[in-house]
Amino acid sequence: MKLNLANRLTILRIFMIPVFMIFLLNKIPYGVPIAAFIFILAALTDTLDGYIARKRNQVTTLGKFIDPLADKLLVSAALISLVQMGELSAWVVVIIISREFTISILRAVAASEGIVIEASWWGKAKTITQIIAIIAILINNFPFSYIGFPFDQIMVLLAVVFTIISGVDYLKLNMHILTKE
């Protein structure tokens, strides 16, 4: 099977996850800033691979599977690592990962019925706020820390709010799939 550029970028994102974690969780000089840079690059590949796939009309079944998987793996790895480092409360991660499992299972059930659940505006807002929150924590709330503004914590709370709203929205709009006999 020949992989198109979009799928290669997605696979690259998956391979960046352990590299990100090595720099983040080990006592490597400048490890956390390097990890932050890797995380930002990985997050950018998400935007880029989707753009390339649509622009070149190269949306594939493999891409539909591995792109959301790569996103969930990247965000989950970062969140769990931040809990291990004492930079993030576990309850935040439990809410976010619970939503991801729930909606992934909903999508799988829908797919088994031949139904595709498209990403909603709330889902995209959720992803963006999660990524911004993670980056803000990784860079120690720079530059806001100089003025005592808790941007990182505000973004974490926004990410939780958007996570809950998007999860409820997906369930509300698609409950008919789960209640179908």
Automatic annotation (TrEMBL):
<dbReference type="GO" id="GO:0008444">
    <property type="term" value="F:CDP-diacylglycerol-glycerol-3-phosphate 3-phosphatidyltransferase activity"/>
</dbReference>
<feature type="transmembrane region" description="Helical">
    <location>
        <begin position="73"/>
        <end position="97"/>
    </location>
</feature>
<feature type="transmembrane region" description="Helical">
    <location>
        <begin position="34"/>
        <end position="52"/>
    </location>
</feature>
<keyword id="KW-0443">Lipid metabolism</keyword>
<keyword id="KW-0808">Transferase</keyword>
<keyword id="KW-0594">Phospholipid biosynthesis</keyword>
<comment type="similarity">
    <text>Belongs to the CDP-alcohol phosphatidyltransferase class-I family.</text>
</comment>
<dbReference type="GO" id="GO:0005886">
    <property type="term" value="C:plasma membrane"/>
</dbReference>
<dbReference type="InterPro" id="IPR048254">
    <property type="entry name" value="CDP_ALCOHOL_P_TRANSF_CS"/>
</dbReference>
<protein>
    <recommendedName>
        <fullName>CDP-diacylglycerol--glycerol-3-phosphate 3-phosphatidyltransferase</fullName>
        <ecNumber>2.7.8.5</ecNumber>
    </recommendedName>
</protein>
<dbReference type="Pfam" id="PF01066">
    <property type="entry name" value="CDP-OH_P_transf"/>
</dbReference>
<keyword id="KW-1003">Cell membrane</keyword>
<dbReference type="InterPro" id="IPR004570">
    <property type="entry name" value="Phosphatidylglycerol_P_synth"/>
</dbReference>
<feature type="transmembrane region" description="Helical">
    <location>
        <begin position="154"/>
        <end position="171"/>
    </location>
</feature>
<keyword id="KW-0444">Lipid biosynthesis</keyword>
<dbReference type="InterPro" id="IPR043130">
    <property type="entry name" value="CDP-OH_PTrfase_TM_dom"/>
</dbReference>
<feature type="transmembrane region" description="Helical">
    <location>
        <begin position="128"/>
        <end position="148"/>
    </location>
</feature>
<comment type="function">
    <text>This protein catalyzes the committed step to the synthesis of the acidic phospholipids.</text>
</comment>
<comment type="pathway">
    <text>Phospholipid metabolism; phosphatidylglycerol biosynthesis; phosphatidylglycerol from CDP-diacylglycerol: step 1/2.</text>
</comment>
<dbReference type="InterPro" id="IPR050324">
    <property type="entry name" value="CDP-alcohol_PTase-I"/>
</dbReference>
<feature type="transmembrane region" description="Helical">
    <location>
        <begin position="12"/>
        <end position="28"/>
    </location>
</feature>
<dbReference type="InterPro" id="IPR000462">
    <property type="entry name" value="CDP-OH_P_trans"/>
</dbReference>
<keyword id="KW-1133">Transmembrane helix</keyword>
<keyword id="KW-0472">Membrane</keyword>
<keyword id="KW-1208">Phospholipid metabolism</keyword>
<comment type="pathway">
    <text>Lipid metabolism.</text>
</comment>
<dbReference type="GO" id="GO:0006655">
    <property type="term" value="P:phosphatidylglycerol biosynthetic process"/>
</dbReference>
<keyword id="KW-0812">Transmembrane</keyword>
